[in-house]
Each structure stands twice: as structure tokens, then as C-alpha cells.
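Researcher: Go.
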Amino acid sequence: WQMKDNFEWIGTLYRKGVEVLAADDARVVEVSIPDTMQVGEAYPVRVTMENVGGLSWNRAEGYALGAVGDSDPFAPARISLPGAEPVGYGERVTFSWTMRAPDTPGEYLTDWRMVREMVHWFGEKVERRVTVHRPPPKIVAAVSRRNHAGLGDLDIDLLGDEPTECRLGGPSEVIVSFDRPISLRSGEEISLSQGSLVAATAMGDTLTLRLEEIADHSLLEIAFPGVVDAADPTLPVGDTLCVPVLAGDVDGDLRVTPADLRRVGRSRREGLDPENFRADLFPDGEIDLIDVNAVVVNLHATVPSCPD
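Model: Structure:
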């Protein structure tokens, strides 16, 4: 502004910049939403918005973070303001909630914007494309199988309370079951920490490994880099399997003690059956002095625990 007479402008010119704010406006400050998810899994997410409009935000007047189109594949359509205090011009607010991935793999759009219920949507939009994958196949059961002559094939549960392969010669056949059908990717199916892989066969959800030269007093760790989801070969098995190997450890506590010797003696008196077959350390269908000697030779030997 400036004064003016009939002929010219006179005096000091006064200028002042004025910022005209929209009644409601918002700026996206930070977004923490993963680009990939696994079907059915839950993920904590965050979005921080800044109020750059002329009105304060508060719950009572219907302000919230809303899913564009009033629906979202990962979450409810509205995320409330986290506190009761109003959010004024220049202030920031962080919305935190949980997204749960859909049960169907694919690419999904999640987009969010500030909303004043029954009035309007406003401000910058959060937009992310999220790829939802199936999880990799998981191990659900694993056994070490040996033949005990008249009793046939008997299995030590490698995921159970007594997972040690206690029979002389160690594991020769390991059978692993997964939560879905699997297949083998040629050339990189199985990785062993020791010994030799003679053969690997996949059938349905079951993988059979034939092994040899597995050392006693040791851990056998098995990885499955080339075992993949039969329906999606891009998904390799991520689990590993650890097998403690200690001849004579009848009770599976990772050490050979007099308790193992007593257990073999008791089983010898009772006779071999599917409940006490671990005492048949030389798996020939009977418990005898060979089995007793297998404990004596390894008495006080130990094997480390499998890594977590």
C-alpha cells in the first residue's frame, strides 16, 4: 500500500507477503510400509502427516487418515488420530497401525489420504504398491530311518524331544516332510555340513535323503537351497535341519551317561519293541552285548546343541 494524491504516489510503500492457506491441507512427511509381504502375515506400519492447512485436525470434527476409495486390501478404511489433542498448522502426527497381507499372492495398491468425514478428502496422497508372496515351504516333520531287521524300519523323530541319532553308523536315510508339495532345482538341491549325499528324491510334500559317511560325535546340518515350492519355483526352502549324531545317547540328551547304559540293560531284559528301539544301537533287531558295548565305548562323550 502507498498514499496517492491527484497526481502521483507519495510516501513510503508498504508491502507484506500473505500466505493464503487452504482450509484443510496436508503434506506427507514419512511413510513406513514394506514393499513385499507374505500372505496372511501382519506388519506394523507408520505414516507421518503434517498439517499445512488453516484448520486444526481433531477427532471430534471427523479428521482421520482414510483409505482412498473407502477400502484397502490390508487394513480397515479409517485410521483415527492417535491423540485427543488437536493438530494445528505446522504440526505433525504419526499414524501407526497393523497391515495384514491378503491370502492371495499378487501385487496390491494401498493408498491413503487425510479425510474430514462427510466434508472432503484433502492433501497429498500416500501411495504404495505391495507385492504379496506365498511364504517359502516349511519343514513340518523330519525323521532318521534305520532298518531293525524283524521290526522293520523305525524312525527317530528329529523334531521331537529325543532327536539324537544314537544308532551306530549315524543317519543313513533322512525323510523330511514340508507343508506343501516341493520339487528339486537341479544341481543345488541339498547342502550337507559333512558326509556325502548319495541320493535325493522328492515326491509330493516329502523329500528322502540317502546319506553316508556321517561322523559320530558331531552335528549334521542340512540346508535345502534347491528345494522349491512345486507351484512357485522362485520360493526355495528357508528352513535348515540339524541332526545331533552320538552313538550310545539312548535318551537323547546329547551325552552318553550311565543312565543310557541302564536303559540298554533294562530294554535287553524286556525285549525289543517299537517303544524301546533306541536301545538297539547296532540295529539288527535284538538288544545284546554289542549294544551294551556301544554305550561303554562312548561313555561320557557329548555332542553340542544345535544352533537356534
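Model: DSSP finds two helices and 21 strands in the chain.
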